[in-house]
Amino acid sequence: MGRRVIWTVFQKEFLDLFRDRKTLLGTFLVPLVIIPFVFFLLGMSYSNVEKEARAYVPIAIHGTSGLTAALEKIPGARILEPENAEQALQAGMLRAIVTIPSGFDETIAAGRTGALTVAYDSTNQKSVYARDVIEQTVKAYSQEIVAQRLQHAGLSPKAIEPIASTYQNVATEERLSGGMLAGIIPLMLVVSLASGGVAAANDLVAGEKERGTLESLMTAPIAANHILTAKLLAVMVMSTMSALASLVSVSLVLSFGPLDTEGAGFSLGFFSPATLLVLVLTILLLAAMFAGLELVLSTIAKSFKEGQTYMSGIIFVAMVPSYMLMPLNPVDIPFSYYVLPVFNGVALCKEVFYGRVDPVHGLVGLGTSLLYVVVIIAWSSRLFRREGAVVKN
Description:
Elements: H1 2-19, H2 21-55, E1 57-62, H3 66-72, E2 77-79, H4 85-91, E3 96-99, H5 104-109, E4 117-120, H6 125-152, H7 173-182, H8 185-196, H9 198-211, H10 213-218, H11 224-256, H12 273-300, H13 304-325, H14 343-353, H15 359-384, H16 387-390
């Protein structure tokens, strides 16, 4: 009987949510459309900036040297002579200013080190690109001079390179792909789980309380726990759907955008039945925890607007652990993080995408997550059974 009641109330709440355009927009439009569109715009912007930076590199050269000819051969280089080079650099008309002191070639010919200055604007990406290509040109010119000096001394260029190092990357293709995703997916996943159910939770309790429909529902011959369970399931489903929509959007971005990994293609070989099980359990427990917390805040709120104010803190709770763990490799994550709420979910997600979940970390992280879910749901149930919390003042 109880399951039938919960299912009936769940269907009613779920249908009401899908009739609300705001809920649909927040759950599907933002993850599926806005996020890929933002990534597309960012990629296009960076691509255009790099293309323009390569095509036109205006620089000013003060002084003369054999290096000047090498600088003039830089692809896209244009040597300009503005009246005030410093102002032109700050205004973006110049990308860099190369100052070659007098006697530069003579100093080099004497076997000493010649010093030059390159001024650039670090706040301008095109200027930074100009500095990089100038640095590469100067380095190549220096290597030519070193080769000439060694030849005059009767030495081989290998005389100044006594050690030849070979660097081997032990990370597999799957590990490279997983490491890249481990910096993106946990953030997207946790924030989506937190934000996806905000509108639903706020409407299912604070909104219905304000409209007076919750009071009518509570007077029906239905146990309060059954009503709460149905609402909790509805919020969990909305959170999970939002998270899945975010995963789909990230997949689209990765499919149509280049992957900047060291000589590796994109692979999902890091997934295994065990890691997939851990990922699914982590998502479900995080969804339940956020849903329970959002229902608590919605129950405490006296109005829909007040509930929106309370819900804004949920996103902050989700973002802080995600950003703190983003640069960390799983081997560097402190064990205490597997006990803290949300932190444990993010840490387990990172282990999943790195292809190996430590059994102890898995048990501790999932166990503590389950404990937090039980505590939050018990708190929500206690509040929900209070008549003053669900009846409009």
